[in-house]
Amino acid sequence: MRINIWIILSAILLIVLIASYALLYRPLEAEKNTLLENIENNRQTLLRYQMSYKKLLEEWDKFKMDIQRYSEIREKLPSKEDLPSLLIFIEKTAKNSDLKINSFKPISSEKKVEGKTPPPYEEMSYSIDMEGSYGAFLLFLSRIKTAPRLILIKNLKIVPSEVKATTLKLSFILSTYIAY
What are phi and psi of 38, to 5 degrees? Predict the structure, then answer.
């Protein structure tokens, strides 16, 4: 009978262990699975944040480069106070290039549109008529190109002054932008 008591006690102990596992460890297993899912979700979120951070850093670098480029362009824009000296520079450059200035007229700028934000600059344009040789005009253009200020030449027209002329009549619009 002693053996039967041990078998019964062993069976009861086994049932108690299985019941305690079912009651204690099975909920812990479910909690472990939930925690593993949360860890995976947090890892995915962290990866998305890292990608966003990398994109943000790339955009920040682009922004800094744009600011630097804007500053460089802004330095090339003359101010209203610089405009007379810029016009004198253009006149001297034409004379030093052996070009004769026939006319130098300002062109009225565009009217401001109400409700629209004005740009931080204003375009100033001048209609210029000159006479001179082709080589002199090329010299003038190369000097204007290397000027420290931003100068644009538009609507260039080159016409011989006579049928067998050694000089050319040049007309163009010279534009620059003035920073406010």
Answer: -65, -40
